[in-house]
Amino acid sequence: MCFVAVKTWMPREVSSLADILADARVWKLKDASAAPARPVWSTGKSSLDARLPGGGWPTASLIEVLLDDTGLGEVQLFLPALVESQRRTDSSGAQDAPWIVWIAPPHEPYAPALAQQGIELGRLLVVRPASAMEALWAAEQALASGVCAAVLLWLKGTDDRWLRRLKLAAESGGALGVLFRPERHRFESSPASLRLLMTQGEHEARLDLLKVQGGRPGPVDLGSIPMDGTSFGSP
Q1: Per-residue pLDDT of the chain (235 residues; tens, 9 = 90+)
Q2: How many other CB atoms sit within 10 Å of the CB of residue 93?
């Protein structure tokens, strides 16, 4: 049995990941033949959109971001997509924005700055698992739930079996799955459809596309990426 600590900014009481799984939309049967194409969310950077298939971050997929340190702007890289994803109207007609889930972030999310940038805090769930295994379990459940727009997971490492499970969960739930882990894993195989490497350059963060299915790998000039101090508070 897994136990996780959960923190939310909610106008009403929501206590755990079970609230997502209790959402009726998780269990609503859909006609697969009538399902619309999965959306692609813009990165907010035209130079990066141009290098990605479809012109943005692919939903229903797993993206792996390898870091030589946290706080380089990795969350800022996804914020435009997170904001846009919450503006969608669910096909079921529900008025609530989809969930965004952060699992094991390295620092405390800074709610005022996130709200100012357009994140709906009432649908942001922060999970503080006690172990890597519990983090992986929570990520798999959230990705497969069908009511999450995006799931961001920070881990120091995991094996190929779990990566494949996360990928399958993202595909079945239609969510954007983002796994952040250390740069030392760059030479390991990964089933992720997109792999990025973020490193600290002399004056700004550097981004390299290591693996892009249907796109072009190589370095991307993003200009200046804001550091994640605007997304995170104190450790």
Answers
A1: 444 555 554 433 344 566 666 665 554 444 444 444 567 899 999 989 999 988 999 999 999 999 987 777 889 899 999 999 888 644 445 567 899 999 999 988 889 999 999 999 999 999 999 999 999 999 999 999 999 999 999 998 878 899 999 999 999 999 999 999 999 999 888 999 899 999 887 777 889 999 998 778 899 987 766 666 556 654 4
A2: 7
Residue 140: inside a domain:
yes
- Report how many domains make up the chain: 1
Phi and psi angles of residue 11, each rounded to the nearest 5 degrees, phi first: -75, -15
CA distances from 126 to 36, 99, 104, 115, 190 (A): 29, 11, 8, 15, 26
58 in a structural domain: yes
Cα(177)–Cα(140) distance, integer angstroms: 10
The parent domain of residue 63 ranges over 4-9+39-230
Q: 3-class DSSP state for residue 126? A: strand
60: CATH = 3.40.50.300
**Contact, 91 vs 52, CB < 8 A?**
no
| 17 within a domain of the structure (yes/no) | no
The CA-based dihedral angle spanning residues 209, 213, 214, 218, taken in that order and rounded to the nearest 10 degrees? 20
Residue 73 lies in a domain: yes
Exposed/middle/buried for 230, CB within 10 Å: 0-12, 13-18, 19+?
A: middle
> What CA–CA distances, in Å, run from 102 to 37, 118, 149?
25, 16, 11
CA angle 31, 33, 35 (to 5 degrees): 70
